[in-house]
Amino acid sequence: MHIDILTVLPELLESPLGHSIMKRAKDKGLLEVHVHHLREWAVNEYGQVDDYQYGGGAGMVMMCEPLANAIETLSKDRKYDEIIYMTPDGHRFNQSTANQLSLKGNLLIICGHYKGIDERIREHFVTMEISIGDYVLSGGELAAAIVVDAVGRLLPGVLNDETSALTDSFQDNLLAPPVYTRPADFRGWVIPEVLLSGDPKKVEEWRYEQSVKRTEARRPDLLD
Question: Is the bond into 183 cis (omega within 30 degrees of 0)?
């Protein structure tokens, strides 16, 4: 998978995408992530990529020209399956969307900043708009890192045990069951006996029951 990210603050993405599972995915050649500084396409020598909004009001807006030129330049090298804009009023990101995006080959992510981007870019270039929640961040960089992480870990070969992702919370609209490790008895806190039974069928049945109970208690909306 190849992912390009357009941003005015590329340094915000260095750490989230340079360690742990994302680093492993890149080292294995399973995921390419290229962060592009939007000021490479600035409208003048001062690096301007934003301007005042028409009609007045507080907050600067990312300009059409730099974004259009950047998208068109990057599109010469590859055809994007999705051009994604990170925005609070976008589609709420969830596991289903992550699963769908993990099947794509090329993605371009635009990180909004300031008051957002010129609406004409959304109308003529953007194919998907994503929000990670009902709140506003200073920019779309951290949100983009979350999307890349959620999608990247699903690529075949990234995780040592590929079945791990299939048992995560929100797969099949259920929260993950409780998990335990050694020792089996810690300070008198004993793990459920079924986990010591050695019977895979009973263990799976218990895990499913616990997933349903946890979902009913914590996220009943997922069962609707």
Answer: yes
Q: Which residues pair with 109 in a beta bridge?
A: 5, 84
Q: Which residue has the tokens 């004993």?
A: 190
DSSP state of 179: -
Contact 42, 48 (CB under 8 A): yes
SS (H, E, C) 42-95: CCCCCCCCEEECCCCCCCEEECHHHHHHHHHHHHCCCCCCEEEEEEEEEEECCH
Q: Is the pLDDT of residue 121 over 80?
A: yes
Query: Burial level of 4, CB count in 10 A (0-12/13-18/19+)?
Result: buried
pTM for this entry = 0.88
User: Residue 163 pLDDT > 60, yes or no?
Assistant: no
Q: In the chain, which residue ranges form alpha helices assigned H by DSSP?
A: 20-27, 64-75, 95-101, 119-124, 141-152, 163-166, 200-218
